[in-house]
């Protein structure tokens, strides 16, 4: 088997807020073709890890690299290869969907017909054409999520970091977004955070489980499922504090 190229490399990443350690010595890498599910209960440290990986938060210690570029030392080349969907809704809520995506595209250095093509393609992938002239603030939660996703995909980056990409979507929209992720997977390295266990089986080639800031499992969905009677039971055993005492 040919060696897989790791496009995301996280090494001993740690974030402390005062005396509290939110992310504790986290190490993993993601190769092209992999969709990594980043799982954990509320407050486990998923968003904090993703923000550090995306260069939006400075680590207390450890490193994160995207396509070989350190996100702290070389933020501009690192971000060129990155599409990031943060938690929550897109900023600039008063802009229309088209206006917001054009703004994001210009910030990425696109102009003229290339900009128009990029925006049209991203809107088609995320099925936003029907709301293209609506201000972002007037959209439902699921549509706002898709606007954020379109912004992350605009420049066709090799690495996608998606924080709860299907949050707020109805079952049909969830299905569409999962299909979109699967269709992009062969050519990219993708990390998605989620607490929806079925999402891991549906789209992920690998799962990293985090609890209280620490990695407690790094396995394929099938390997995880084989550890117990159900994915729910495995997740609880891995992430509940009681299990540590057992
Ligand atoms: N800026 C901050 N200052 C202090 N504590 C913070 C800050 N950001 C996050 N935390 C804390 O760090 C921990 C990890 O938070 P994080 O948002 O990364 O968790 P999460 O796994 O993404 O949770 P959720 O599934 O609820 O989104 C939480 O206890 C949170 O309260």
UniProtKB/TrEMBL annotation:
Residues 8-237 form the ABC transporter domain. The keyword Transport applies. It comes from Falsiroseomonas tokyonensis. Belongs to the ABC transporter superfamily. This is ABC transporter ATP-binding protein. GO terms for molecular function: ATP binding. Transmembrane segments: none annotated. InterPro entries: AAA+_ATPase, ABC_transporter-like_ATP-bd, P-loop_NTPase. SMART domains: AAA (SM00382). PROSITE patterns: ABC_TRANSPORTER_2 (PS50893). It holds the Pfam family ABC_tran. Keywords: ATP-binding, Nucleotide-binding, Transport.
């Amino acid at each position: 088997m040919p060696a897989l190229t790791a496009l995301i490399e996280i090494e001993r990443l740690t974030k402390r807020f005062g005396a509290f350690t939110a992310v504790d010595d986290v190490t993993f890498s993601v190769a092209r073709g992999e969709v990594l599910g980043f799982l954990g209960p509320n407050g486990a440290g998923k968003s904090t890890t993703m923000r550090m990986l995306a260069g939006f938060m400075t680590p207390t210690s450890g490193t994160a690299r995207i396509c070989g570029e350190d996100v702290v030392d070389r933020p501009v080349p690192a971000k060129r290869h990155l599409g990031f969907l943060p938690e929550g809704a897109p900023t600039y809520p008063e802009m229309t969907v088209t206006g917001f995506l054009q703004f994001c595209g210009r910030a990425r250095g696109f102009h003229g017909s290339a900009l128009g093509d990029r925006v049209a393609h991203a809107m088609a992938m995320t099925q936003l054409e029907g709301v293209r002239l609506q201000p972002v603030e007037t959209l439902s939660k699921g549509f706002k999520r898709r606007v954020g996703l379109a912004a992350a995909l605009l420049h066709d980056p090799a690495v996608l970091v998606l924080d709860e990409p299907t949050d707020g979507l109805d079952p049909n929209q969830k299905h569409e977004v999962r299909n979109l992720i699967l269709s992009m997977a062969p050519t990219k390295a993708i990390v998605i955070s989620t607490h929806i266990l079925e999402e891991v089986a549906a789209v992920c080639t690998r799962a990293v489980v985090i609890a209280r800031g620490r990695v407690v499992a790094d396995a394929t969905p099938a390997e995880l499922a084989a550890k117990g009677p159900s994915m729910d039971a495995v997740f609880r055993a891995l992430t509940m504090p009681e299990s540590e005492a057992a």
